[in-house]
């Protein structure tokens, strides 16, 4: 039942296997170095490692392999690495490795795409070009697969029901708050507030009717405001209300309900003691292309709206902010008609940009940036630009947040290829770091947009891990450092390792 193949690699052994468990196909793969299980690799990608297809190549691999083993051993025996090992504690690492292995299992399902049919009456008229049959089905309101993409409200995640299902994430299901209402926090982000030892989730509150302002315009919901939810465990969320509300009457106001307010992100400024929110501010045609800033004394608001502007004088659409370990915060936004990203530090009070910025990922047409940092390296997940339709995520890495940023490939693992090329039918919005006892583990937060009824868009939260080598040719592939690969593992049902949370 468990077919296996084993390949000798340059510096160890890679084992790849598949089996059937509880009726679903599980694919797993890991690297083994000197008998010790190390990191996960993506079975679905081309490998850049050497292959033994002839005797001479084998010989070269063995020689290079031996050299690599020597380098690895030397580095392991060096005082710095020994210090790091001791700092982490060997016993804890072993149990963490066991927990993380569970998260690295991935699931694959067989879905049958129905044969092509005439466009149904209510299908969205404006569709991006070059779509796969899966995305065609996804955007078709009458698709037989609708329930698979948007499971009905009977299968919700309810934090008030304790028992076997407690603490499990079910990506794509309706997620209720502690009062039993669907969470409204789309395009959002999460902060951990050290002062209250509480997580806060901010996002677009979209609980209104979806309509098209113009025949060719994108589906939209009038601005209602920014929703805020609090949690001690990242699973059960209490509604803290709308912390930044729409302007009902003044049509000239940025937050007038007829405008666009997207992708709010909040950081805390320890110098000023203020919580600062940045967001994408636009008009109905997305031509204002600005960022807005709001401020509050408390994580759960109310936030006071300050102003909007075109950062550094450029158009700005999808955006995020990132607070570095030294307290410097950065704004990252899609610019020049979404063809590139710009990144630059904020002022010390986080209320404005400075006059420093860099253009990165030029010509790559990426949006929905979600940044995180791991062992001194900056990583970013982005999406392509196809409106509300899902597309392929890419991971990028950089030694300095100001760039250069290098694209290191599609991080999605599991399900089937169509799903991986569509980020499991979702779009990135944020990456949540976990407490330091799990330094390699993050939560990837994404939105499964429902353009037919945006309020019913779903959340796709999945484990994201950093480790192993990237396995596709890179722009500067003879240059150190070799980036670690970023992996987002598909699960229909999963939970964080028990004991991850010291807050309870
Ligand atoms: C894609 C962006 O990522 C979303 O935030 C939103 O602006 C949609 N486009 C609108 O079509």
UniProtKB/TrEMBL annotation:
It holds the Pfam family Glyco_hydro_43. The keyword Transferase does not apply. It comes from Cucumis sativus. One of its GO terms (cellular component) is Golgi apparatus. GO terms for biological process: carbohydrate metabolic process; classical arabinogalactan protein metabolic process. Keywords: Glycosidase, Hydrolase, Membrane, Transmembrane, Transmembrane helix. Residues 109-132 are annotated as: Disordered. This is Uncharacterized protein. The chain crosses the membrane at residues 58-77. Residues 116-130 have a biased composition (Basic residues). Belongs to the glycosyl hydrolase 43 family. PANTHER family: GLYCOSYL HYDROLASE 43 FAMILY MEMBER (PTHR22925), GLYCOSYL HYDROLASE FAMILY PROTEIN 43 (PTHR22925:SF3). One of its GO terms (molecular function) is beta-galactosidase activity.
């Amino acid at each position: 039942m468990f077919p296996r193949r084993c390949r000798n690699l340059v510096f160890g052994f890679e084992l790849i296997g598949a089996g059937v468990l509880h009726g679903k196909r599980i694919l797993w793969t890991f690297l083994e170095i000197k008998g010790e299980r190390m990191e996960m690799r993506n079975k679905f990608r081309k490998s850049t490692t050497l292959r033994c297809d002839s005797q001479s190549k084998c010989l070269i691999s063995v020689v290079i392999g031996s050299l690599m083993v020597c380098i690895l051993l030397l580095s392991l025996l060096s005082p710095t690495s020994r210090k790091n090992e001791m700092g982490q504690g060997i016993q804890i690492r072993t149990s963490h490795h066991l927990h993380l292995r569970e998260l690295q299992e991935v699931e694959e399902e067989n879905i049958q795409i129905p044969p092509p049919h005439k466009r149904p009456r209510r299908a969205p008229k404006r569709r991006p070009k070059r779509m796969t049959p899966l995305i065609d089905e996804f955007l078709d309101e009458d698709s037989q697969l609708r329930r698979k993409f948007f499971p009905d409200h009977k299968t919700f995640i309810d934090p008030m029901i304790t028992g076997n299902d407690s603490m499990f994430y079910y990506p794509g299901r309706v997620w209720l708050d502690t009062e039993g209402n669907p969470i409204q926090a789309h395009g959002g982000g999460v902060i951990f507030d050290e002062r209250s030892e509480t997580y806060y989730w901010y996002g677009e509150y979209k609980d209104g009717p979806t309509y098209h302002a113009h025949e060719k315009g994108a589906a939209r919901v009038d601005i209602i405001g920014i929703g805020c939810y609090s949690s001690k465990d990242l699973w059960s969320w209490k509604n803290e209300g709308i912390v930044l509300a729409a302007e009902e009457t003044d049509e000239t106001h940025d937050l007038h309900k007829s405008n666009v307010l997207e992708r709010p992100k909040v950081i805390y400024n320890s110098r000023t003691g203020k919580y600062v929110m940045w967001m994408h501010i636009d008009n109905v045609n997305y031509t204002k292309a600005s960022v807005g800033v709001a401020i509050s004394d408390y994580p759960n608001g109310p936030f006071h709206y300050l102003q909007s502007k075109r950062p550094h004088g450029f158009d700005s659409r999808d955006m995020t902010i990132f607070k570095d370990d030294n307290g410097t915060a950065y704004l990252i936004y899609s610019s020049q008609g979404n063809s590139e990203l710009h990144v630059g530090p904020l002022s010390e009070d986080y209320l404005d940009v400075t006059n420093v910025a860099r253009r990165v990922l030029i010509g790559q047409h990426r949006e929905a940036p979600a940044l995180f940092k791991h062992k001194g390296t900056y990583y970013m997940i982005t999406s392509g630009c196809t409106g509300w339709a899902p597309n392929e995520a890419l991971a990028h890495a950089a030694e300095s947040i100001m760039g250069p940023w290098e694209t290191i490939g599609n991080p999605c693992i599991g399900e089937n290829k169509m799903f991986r090329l569509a980020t499991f039918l979702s779009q990135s919005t944020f990456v949540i770091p976990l407490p330091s006892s799990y330094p390699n583990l993050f939560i990837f937060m994404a939105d499964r947009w429902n353009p037919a009824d945006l309020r019913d868009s779903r959340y796709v939260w999945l484990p994201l891990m950093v480790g192993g080598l990237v396995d596709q040719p890179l722009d500067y592939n003879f240059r150190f450092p070799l980036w670690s690969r970023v992996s987002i593992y598909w699960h229909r049902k999963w939970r964080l390792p028990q004991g991850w949370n010291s807050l309870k």
